[in-house]
Amino acid sequence: MTLALSKTDIESFNNDGVVVIRGVFKEWIDILIRGAEFHINNPSSSALVHQEKSYQGHFMEDFCNWQRIPEYKDFVLNSPLASLAAELTESKSVQFFHDHFFYKEAYSGVETPWHQDMPYYCVSGDQTVSFWLPLESREQSVSLKCLAGSHTFPKEIRPTSWSTNDSFYEDDESFMDLPNIDNGDFEIKQWATEPGDVVAFNFKSIHGASANKVDGLSRTLSFRLLGDDVVYRQRLGRTSPNFPDINQKNGERLREDWFPTIWSN
Fold first, then answer.
1. Domain 9-229 belongs to what architecture?
2. Residues 71, 54: contact at Cβ < 8 Å?
3. Model confidence pLDDT, tens digit, residues 159-191
């Protein structure tokens, strides 16, 4: 299924590293909610659960479940996801990288800290896109927030473990520290969203989300896709998600049996 984006959408994605696209997945929300409800009750063995001591709710996240949850697989293969990725990244072909599910219970109180996805991944390249898709209405204050233009920074942001703030890899000069985002020097993009809206952003865009401190659950799916110039990159340690048996060399296109091409033109 294909769906044309406006020239403004593509320019915003290229210039800011992020764009909100309204209503594009509205007809898929009920299907994805069924998948998410199954997922909540049947997390994978690698699911992570976080909890803030002063709050009662839990925050669960889980990776790489699209092939075991039929509703997710249907969405990946049959929705406009791949064609939108091709348009935004200006690619002739698109590979599916992975999915990521976030479930924040009411009053979970655990924020998603400012970070950049790319340093946690076993890939490099510029033609990347992550689709952040909330399954219920989201007020602006608890929606995804992105740092406009941060995908053009000269170095990747040093990745850390969210629970300990320790460096994810050995410190070296290939990374830069997270800038002071609260000093007012940066434009922050953040939108209220309705089911069917999606925020698309580059893997190198710095982003985060506030804690769920209200009486309402929060279910969000993210789908990560790869364009023409994306290749394998060996990191200095485990990646997140981790693919320990991937058996690839730097500069290779990711293996098709794990990361299928879902769009070609």
1. Sandwich (2.60)
2. no
3. 887 656 667 777 667 899 899 998 888 999 999
